[in-house]
Amino acid sequence: MTATSARITAVDTFDVRFPTSRELDGSDAMNPDPDYSAAYVVLRTDAGDGLEGQGFTFTIGRGNDVQVAAINALRSHVVGRCVQELCADPGSLSRDLIGDSQLRWLGPEKGVMHMAIGAVVNAVWDLAAKREGKPLWQLLAHASPEWLVSQVDFRYIGDALSPDDALRMLGAGRAGLAEREAMLLERGYPGYTTSPGWLGYSDDKLTRLAKQAVADGFTQIKLKVGADLADDIRRLRAAREAVGDGIRIAIDANQRWNVDEAIDWTNALAEFDPYWIEEPTSPDDILGHASVRRVVAPVKVATGEHVQNRIVFKQLLQAGALDVLQIDAARVGGVNENLATLLLAAKFGVPVCPHAGGVGLCELVQHLSMFDYLALSGTTENRVIEYVDHLHQHFTEPVVIRDGHYTAPLAPGFSATMREESLAEYRYPDGAFWIADRAGQEDAA
Fold first, then answer.
1. What is the pLDDT of residues 354-387, one digit of tens each?
2. Together in a domain, 59 and 195
3. Is 224 annotated in the active site?
4. Residue 131 is part of which domain span?
5. 355 is catalytic
6. What does the record list as coiled-coil region(s) (predicted)?
């Protein structure tokens, strides 16, 4: 098989679930018992080079099978495609998947179907970067501005961002790229940690982990809030006492409140100097976010992990509804749509601080922030990537944190490959862990 004739031969999917609810890892006011999960996809080829494309989208347990089914519904668009053409133009597949009129009816460009598209598109980018022998951040940062613009769908966002705007910003962003890349490789990209702040943790555990975060070099932590105001006041007081005044503390309500509640609750916590309030209300309530932002300043408003597409991000920016934009590598339609969102944020001058944690989200989104720093925004000022110390051991190239910074990954690809042993152990419902777990429950009954 020649390199030019190789085709995609299979789209394999896996329902992978981890029992994180049992330790309350990931617990918050809206999601008290998440089982962190991945609808995982592998693109296989007949190229004979051993390279595969891996991608996934993140869920929190029940419904992960629905997400896998959505990925399977895209298989006919992918199998048989020329590998070389696909990797040279991932946007071609993105447009075809989004443009399937019958599947589009289930969105359009939102929800389970759109997340499935993101998983497949991200797997193509993973394969493309592996074939280039580069980590994805480096492939993107060194790509020509013209090619990057060709990967962006400007439909519905042209009133805020034109191809000419994007080309101009990407052209300007190349100035000083080599120097920034050297700094990135030496220092890494700043992170912050949510590990101390899960709502189900005791005050002692919160305090211990907050102090550890500072010792590990983090200059920002995040706490979940929104279930009980008295508890939040007590927990924030404990956290502030643990880390001191020089460390930023962000708070995250995970969409729990109405607009008036968000304002009152955030103002009640203002004495602890929260840096931002994240997802204060519904991710679809653009004007609600704008109302909250006007009243709770100087506390910043951050949102984005559940924003479903570039069109909603556009409106949040146009409405002045957020101070911090939080992309998610696996919520929207993959790298292509995240490029659009990064360009929108740069156009409006709003810093991007990605959502991560979950299963593999840290591994993915580091590439997008590093590209943004190197070739678009040119700065890490007031920019941090979320970090959660869970489940990284299940990836062949897990993130490496050093002194509170993400170390730039050097392995080719998108850092999306899960270990075969983890797939065998945690595949649901027939992985070794889940078989043993059911047997244990039956014995206990």
1. 999 889 999 999 999 999 999 999 999 999 999 9
2. no
3. yes
4. 8-156
5. yes
6. none
